[in-house]
Amino acid sequence: MEIYQIDAFTNKPFCGNSAGVTFGDGLTDEIKQKIAKEMNLAETAFLSNSGKANYRLQWFTPSVEVDLCCHGTIASLHFLKEHSLIKNGQTITFDTKSGLLKCKMEDDKYFMQIPLYNMEKFIDERDQILSALGISENNLDKDIPWILLENTNLYICIKSLEDLKNLSPDFKALIRISETNNKIGGFALFTLETIEETSFTHSRYFVPFYGIDEDTVTGSVNGPLLPVLKYLNLITDEQMNQGLTFEQGDFMERTGRVFVKFYPKENELYISGSAVTVIKGEIIF
Length: 285
What we know:
The structure is a single chain. This protein has 285 residues and is α+β, with helices and mostly antiparallel strands. The chain folds into two domains: 2-115 and 272-282, Diaminopimelate Epimerase, Chain A, domain 1; 119-266, Diaminopimelate Epimerase, Chain A, domain 1, CATH 3.10.310. It is 24% helix and 37% strand. The protein is built from seven helices and 18 strands. The chain has an 18-stranded mixed beta sheet that branches. A hairpin with a 2-residue loop joins strand 6 (91-96) and strand 7 (99-106). Helix 3 packs antiparallel against helix 5. The mean pLDDT is 96.
């Protein structure tokens, strides 16, 4: 059974975020889970036939099936391209646990629609969270409030790229915060200072409550960051509609770039990026 390992949100091997991808027709969820455990990547994606969409798409961590995985979706689009099953200008749909996902390929980049989430300013447990993140008020941009999304990601703006690079969270303390406040699942820290002039933000994402101390490049964090920035009046409608590039992963030596764009007429938010295959192999069982 053919299986690939693909780095998403990058065009360079050994960067971005890795996912396994294979065809899943004829496999039980139990076998898919065992394959994901064997691959031992953050997620392994399985493509199979669907009566509702072009393909059914499932994502498994080494321990559980998850509702949504952006880098696994970008990797799946690249897998389909490698098998000549999608081409430039084509739009396809995936039937997933999160509903139907609309995706497309343009100019050899992969686009994925992601949800628009409700958001609110967050003021609770500030001292406790700062202590767990290993930072102080001096590391923050004090004019920018914290934003909590309904998907449980908390966005915190850090003053500088150097402060973002040097922070050292207490992951057990972050887990305790998530255990006592189920509205907070992940901690998305970003700064308006970037490594590349063409980028707008640089991010780090900590989600130890779900078994990932720090994720390398996270589509489900960088995508909603665009409307978060608009909510905070840090970008204009024009910038939102033209799209912005966000950085992540550089401090983990897994450099990744996520382009995010809002389409106002359709009221749709898309992330996009490149991908590269680093391993092609077979699973035998």
